[in-house]
Structures are given as structure tokens and as C-alpha cells.
Design brief:
heterotrimer; A alpha/beta; B alpha/beta; C alpha/beta; B: TIM Barrel; 8-stranded parallel β-barrel; 15% strand; C: alpha/beta; Rossmann fold; 2 domains; 4-stranded parallel sheet; 3-stranded antiparallel sheet; 7 helices; 26% helix
């Protein structure tokens, strides 16, 4: 894979656990790589399948969702819904012969700043390894 | 006017009050009838009539009517079986006339296993009529001399009408009523699904006798000898409506290597002895599919030989 | 409602392989209710088609529009000015939609985006179950409000058969034995006697077996 490949990644994160983790990361002076565009949502349950597909339509190489743990979602079932929708999009990608690993969902806990950054790092490395979507 | 409905050997034997003994045979998976004739050879003289299955488990085989004709040629009396899964009422009435014209006298009316089970699961489902309505159809053709639409038949089929009963299927409470319904609609004889739970079957027969069903119809108890522990386990777990007591599986396991089949036959013979004495049971239907060569031995051990001549 | 399922995306892609301007037409009727053909699903399908084309580097244009229903000429008429702008139309309405569109727009290339399955209802959110086979002669009141034609694998009228086990049909543990349910219901209702009466062979003449059907209401015809 070309070392110059900077994947376009879109990250959705909820305003509960994930955002508090983001704040902590900020406070720790840890920033996300600049090729990751973040979108904050009130709850990951608010993310529709279309929201997950649009970034791919418009040129993204990867998408991920960061939300609460299954048992600590402020809106109770939001993260569960988001998990099912991510699974559905994985299925769509597979049928299009696109690596389903290009989309994923992560469960964070409030205040875990390092985790917030690690997740971004993981997706970044993963997409770099997979290469640009067009190359598949 | 004949005192018989069909003058079939089976009917005559039952009417004379003898304990009937029927067997079963599956048609070949092709047009090659050599193995069928071989099986027929084992059964000849041991049983009063032989069931010929109809695309059993929805697996395509030679049709029951054709295999029945082969058996006739070999000197046996076939129990022609017809399922409702594959034919509509036109083909059903046609085939009834056809088989009768060729000398077939006994007919079993069954629903049929759904084609999803079989080797052509994409086939179209027929089920124009159900097994109860099929019994009614044969009875109408025989006793009214008309087709289902009321039109006269030129030469009504004088068939002895059979049906199946599964005392162990669910809902259990309803099974006796379903049996009564089949008899009311016209079944002359019934063969039950194979029995292993003798206690439960005794209970079932008591109810049948209380309702007087044994006086309106001849009830034959189904027996299938267990060949192996594997077979017993399979039937217990995988076959719907089958009740295999744990005690039987234990008994077979205890028989020791190489002796299980013998023990299975022993159990079957014990069952037959008990059925001979059980009130309401007019005979036994032995299903030893692909084990026809053991039927002469089982018939002898169970004291079924020689078969009565009426 | 009529329940349908989206065709596999690979099948849809193959259908429209040669086309570059595609219109996805949704329907606000039954297919919206079963989450397969409404405006939301039309948008998802359009996005999916565009993502697919990213890989082939082919440019396509996909537009969406959702009609009130695709089974009434007055609504189908609504797209008459836009339909010629596209070289392929994927209708995600039930089987009636693409047919009505084909009749109304004979020169348009219309493709069905869903497989229409059955008439049924939602038993749970996200789960729909068949209830009616359209036999044309409804008799559910004789069976405790349950339909043996559509819900018995063998459409028995004098059931159950010997394959009923633990309340399930012999074909699958996921299929309830409707006759088990009918017997229990009629027993509860104190009407078991009725099930002892012989039900004669059904006339299938009012079902699809009798030929394609038509319904005319004289008092409504202009």
C-alpha cells in the first residue's frame, strides 16, 4: 500500500460517553488524525442507514460509529439500534464486493480519553491497509 | 350383491375374524423392478397384503400404482397408497378408476409428507383435497357410483378403503376424534403409525373401544422392528409424532454388540403377541422397509404363519 | 398488507448494468409499512447504487420519487413528465407497481426492485407473517378465526396431519402448526364438536386456480 494514502474516514460519535471521552482526550492533548472527520450526534441510535451510506457515496474510504456500552446508553436502546444498522451496512458492502471492515462500531465508556483516540487509530490503520475504496 | 365391499384378500380375512398381517414395500428409484420383485418374494406367503408407498418422504420413486401392478403380477395383494400432495381431484379420480380396472382392490388414503422434505423441494404443492376428503371421494365413487361432481361412473371402483392414524401425534387429545372422523367418512380399515410406547397405545385403544370404533372399522397396529440403537435414537429425536420410550433404547443398548437387531425383532414379536390379545386390534401392519428378508422370520416367531386362506 | 422483500442488490445491479440514468420509485402503501419500498428505502437503494458505481468508475445518476400508491392510475400518472428523463426505472412497490408502470409507460424500461411475498401482518416489529392466500372464499369463522388455507402447509380442511409436533409444522420448527392452534382454540371456545364435522373438498374456483381474477363494482363504474 502506498505510504502516502491518507484515507477519508467519517466518524459519528454520541454526545454521551463518546463525547465525554473526546473531551478527556482533548484535555490530555491527544488529537485525532486530521483525515478523520467527526460528526457528533445526540445518540448513536439517531444514525440511520442512509447516514452511514452517504459518506461512502461521497468518497469516504471508511466509516465508524463510537457510542456507549450496551448497558449504559443514556437513551437505553440507541447503541443497540446503531449496532444493528452498522451490521446491515456491512452486509450491503459485502454484496457490493466492498470489504465490510470499512465500517465498524465501537463501545466507549465515559471519560476514557485514550480509548477514544485508540479507536480512531485502529480504524485509520485498518483503512490504510485496505487501501482506497476505489482500488477494490 | 356381494357381502364384501371389494372382495380383496385383506377384507375377507378381516371379515372372517382372523388376525390380519400386512407388510410394506417401497417402489424402486427407477424403472428397474428386479429389487422390487426380490422384496416381494420375501413377503409372499407371510402377509395378507402389502402396502406400496407413494413417493414416500416426497422422494420421487416409481408410482405406487405401477409398483402395485408389479406386485400383483408376482402373486401378492397390494395396498395401493395415494397421497394428496401430488395430484388434484381429476387425476385422483382417474387413477382410482385406473388401478381398480387392473385388479387392485385395496387403497390407502394419505396426506403425504410435504415436498419440502424431499428431493424436489421446488415443486408446486397440490393438496387440492386432503386425506379425509380423499377417503370421502373413494367412498362416493364406490358406494354412490358417482364422481365428486355427481356424474355417474361407468363401472364404479369397488375398493377397500384404508387410512392412517397416528395415535402419538399432537394435539394428542384430538387424535382419537380424528380417527373417529376418518371412520365416519368411510375408512374401512386403519393402519397406525409404528408403535413403541405400548402404555400410551393401550390407553388410545381403550378410548377407541369405548367409542365403538373397532366395530365400525378394522384397526391394525403398526410395528417397525428396530435394527439398531442409532435407528431408535433417530426415530426418537428426528421423526415428528414418534414416541420411543427411553426404556426401549436402553434395552437395545443392553443387548450387546451384534445382537441389537435380534433384540429389536424380539421386541417386535412381543408387541405382536400383545396386539393379538388387545381388544379392538384387528391385525398388525409390519413396516420392515428394506428389511423384507427378515419378515419371514418375524412372521414365524410371532406365530403368524401360515396365513389364513379365505 | 402486501409484504415484500428487497431483491438481492447483486440482482438489481445486474438489471440496471447498462443504464446510467435511473429513477427509483417508491410507494407509500404496503411496502412503506413493511419497510422495503418507501421513500426511506428508495433513498437507501439510490445511495447503494451510487456506491456500487464508485467501484466501476462509471458515472450514474440516480433519482428517487415516492408515489402515494403505484396501484392507482391517477398516482402512476404523476410521473409522466419525469419518466422520459431516465433510461431505467426501478419500482420498489409490490408486483402491481412495476406492472401498472409498464402499462402506463410502454416505452419505459421498468424493473421490479422487490420480490412480493404474501398478504400478512406484523406479528412483531420487523417480523411479518403470512395470513391470507387470497382463496376468494373466506371461511376463517369455522376455524376459530384462523385460516387453514394460508397457514397450513398442506391447506388441510380436516387437519391436523400426522406431522404436527410440539405445536410446530413438520416442515420447520419456525412454522406453527395452525391445526394445533385451531384445535386448542376451538376447545377453549367449547366448539370442538364443530371440528368433528367433515369439511368437503374446497372449491378453488375463486382462488387463483380458477384463472386471473377481476373485481367489478357496477355501482362505482362510471
Amino acid at each position: 500500500m502506498s505510504n502516502n494514502f491518507k484515507p477519508k474516514i467519517v466518524a459519528f460519535y454520541c454526545s454521551n460517553c463518546a463525547s465525554s471521552a473526546a473531551n478527556v482526550a482533548d484535555g490530555m492533548d491527544k488529537a485525532l488524525p486530521e483525515n478523520i472527520k467527526t460528526i457528533q450526534v445526540p445518540c448513536t441510535g439517531r444514525i440511520e442507514i442512509l447516514h452511514l451510506l452517504k459518506p461512502f457515496e461521497e468518497g469516504a474510504d471508511g466509516v465508524y460509529v463510537a457510542g456507549c456500552q450496551e448497558d449504559s446508553c443514556q437513551f437505553v436502546t440507541g447503541i443497540t439500534k446503531a449496532t444493528k444498522r452498522v451490521a446491515h451496512v456491512k452486509m450491503i458492502l459485502e454484496q457490493l464486493d466492498i470489504a465490510p471492515e470499512r465500517i465498524d462500531i465501537f463501545n466507549l465508556s465515559a471519560g476514557r480519553g485514550q480509548a477514544f483516540v485508540d479507536v480512531a487509530s485502529e480504524m485509520n490503520s485498518r483503512i490504510i491497509e485496505l487501501g482506497p475504496l476505489l482500488s477494490e | 350383491m356381494s357381502e364384501y365391499k371389494s372382495e380383496s384378500n385383506l377384507e375377507k380375512i378381516l371379515k372372517a375374524g382372523h388376525f390380519a398381517f400386512t407388510g410394506e414395500c417401497g417402489p424402486p428409484l427407477g424403472a428397474n423392478v428386479e429389487h422390487l420383485k426380490e422384496k416381494a418374494g420375501h413377503l409372499k406367503g407371510c402377509v395378507d397384503a402389502v402396502n406400496v408407498t407413494d413417493n414416500q418422504t416426497a422422494v420421487v420413486r416409481m408410482s405406487s400404482w405401477a409398483a402395485s401392478l408389479v406386485l400383483l403380477q408376482e402373486g401378492l395383494e397390494p395396498n395401493f397408497q395415494m397421497v394428496c400432495r401430488d395430484r388434484n381431484r381429476l387425476a385422483i379420480q382417474s387413477d382410482i378408476l385406473g388401478v381398480y380396472s387392473h385388479g387392485i382392490k385395496n387403497m390407502l388414503c394419505l396426506s403425504g409428507d410435504h415436498q419440502r422434505f424431499g428431493n424436489h423441494p421446488e415443486a408446486k404443492n397440490v393438496f387440492d383435497i386432503d386425506s379425509m376428503q380423499l377417503i370421502h371421494t373413494v367412498k362416493t365413487m364406490r358406494d354412490e357410483g358417482t364422481f365428486l361432481n355427481g356424474q355417474d361412473i361407468d363401472g364404479p371402483p369397488e375398493l377397500f378403503i384404508g387410512a392412517a392414524s397416528n395415535p402419538f401425534a399432537e394435539p394428542f387429545e384430538f387424535r382419537i376424534h380424528r380417527l373417529a372422523k376418518k371412520i365416519a367418512v368411510g375408512a374401512d380399515f386403519i393402519q397406525t403409525q409404528c408403535i413403541y410406547n405400548m402404555d400410551r397405545f393401550r390407553e388410545f385403544m381403550k378410548r377407541a373401544v369405548d367409542m365403538g370404533l373397532h366395530e365400525k372399522c378394522y384397526i391394525l397396529a403398526g410395528v417397525t422392528p428396530m435394527k439398531s440403537v442409532g435407528m431408535a435414537r433417530y426415530m426418537a429425536k428426528q421423526v415428528p409424532g414418534m414416541d420411543v420410550p427411553a426404556s426401549l433404547i436402553k434395552r437395545l443398548q443392553g443387548a450387546g454388540k451384534g445382537k441389537v437387531a435380534g433384540e429389536g425383532i424380539k421386541f417386535a414379536v412381543e408387541q405382536i403377541e400383545e396386539f393379538k390379545e388387545m381388544e379392538g386390534v384387528a391385525g398388525v401392519h409390519l413396516m420392515a422397509i428394506e428389511w423384507e428378508h427378515r419378515v419371514p422370520e418375524i412372521s414365524k416367531l410371532a406365530g403368524m404363519l401360515p396365513r389364513p386362506k379365505v | 398488507m402486501i409484504v415484500a422483500e428487497q431483491k438481492p442488490i447483486t440482482e438489481i445491479l445486474e438489471m440496471v448494468e447498462d443504464y446510467t440514468k435511473i429513477l427509483v420509485l417508491g410507494c407509500k402503501g404496503c411496502v412503506t409499512v413493511c419497510n422495503v419500498g418507501g421513500s426511506k428505502e428508495a433513498a437507501i437503494l439510490a445511495s447503494t447504487l451510487k456506491i456500487a458505481k464508485r467501484k466501476t468508475n462509471k458515472k450514474i445518476e440516480v433519482a428517487t420519487h415516492t408515489l402515494e400508491r403505484q396501484c392507482d392510475p391517477e398516482y402512476v400518472d404523476e410521473v409522466k413528465d419525469m419518466i422520459d428523463d431516465y433510461d431505467a426505472v426501478i419500482s420498489i412497490a409490490c408486483g402491481v407497481g412495476p406492472q401498472f408502470l409498464s402499462e402506463r409507460y410502454p416505452s419505459a424500461r421498468i424493473f421490479p426492485g422487490v420480490n412480493t411475498k404474501f398478504m400478512g401482518g406484523a406479528v412483531e416489529h420487523g417480523i411479518w407473517s403470512e395470513r391470507c392466500a387470497g382463496c376468494g372464499t373466506c371461511v376463517i369463522h369455522h376455524f376459530g378465526g384462523l385460516c387453514p388455507i394460508s397457514r397450513c402447509s398442506k391447506s388441510l380442511m380436516n387437519g391436523p396431519c400426522g406431522g404436527s409436533s410440539n405445536g410446530k409444522c413438520e416442515i420447520s420448527k419456525d412454522v406453527d402448526c395452525i391445526w394445533d392452534m385451531i384445535v386448542r382454540k376451538m376447545t377453549e371456545l367449547g366448539r370442538l364438536q364443530e371440528l368433528l364435522e367433515f369439511v368437503p373438498p374446497k372449491s378453488w374456483i375463486t382462488a387463483r386456480d380458477g384463472g386471473p381474477r377481476r373485481l367489478i363494482r357496477e355501482e362505482l363504474v362510471k
